[in-house]
């Protein structure tokens, strides 16, 4: 199967349907307002669906807010690409940070908002952050 939403003006997409693993090709590039794609398995999607813009993340809950909601939770990982350490900026309490290789191997866990990966080789990694309110998965690049 093929999923292509390239070049649209979406800011969120709910693609959670129980069959995400059947998607062979996925493209959500050129959606500069697309922040979150709701999926069945964020780790699988992050590793296998790489044709997306840098600000786009996968989550099981994109926290669709109504217009009556007063504020949105802040979430950011920086710097990315990473040389030695990255910082997680979130208004939520971090429960655990997990770093995975592109093959899905768990490499490191932390409970800190500042994570040192200076001993990692250059390459792409997947960061899964579980907070008291949500779980976010995002790709980082180690320089």
Automatic annotation (TrEMBL):
UniProt protein name: T9SS type A sorting domain-containing protein
Pfam families, per the entry: Por_Secre_tail
Keywords: Signal
Secretion system C-terminal sorting domain segment(s): 77-141
Top-level taxon in the UniProt lineage: Bacteria
């Amino acid at each position: 199967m093929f999923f292509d939403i390239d070049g649209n003006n979406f800011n969120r997409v709910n693609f959670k349907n129980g069959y995400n693993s059947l998607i062979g090709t996925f493209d959500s590039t050129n959606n500069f307002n697309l922040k979150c794609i709701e999926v069945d398995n964020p780790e699988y999607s992050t590793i296998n669906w790489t044709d997306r813009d840098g600000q786009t993340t996968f989550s099981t809950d994109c926290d669709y807010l109504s217009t009556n909601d007063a504020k949105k939770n802040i979430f950011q990982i920086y710097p990315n690409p990473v040389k030695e350490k990255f910082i997680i900026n979130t208004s939520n309490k971090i429960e655990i940070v997990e770093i995975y290789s592109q093959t899905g191997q768990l490499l490191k866990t932390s409970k800190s908002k500042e994570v040192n990966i200076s001993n990692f080789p250059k390459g792409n990694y997947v960061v899964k952050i579980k907070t008291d309110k949500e779980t976010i998965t995002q790709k980082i690049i180690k320089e």
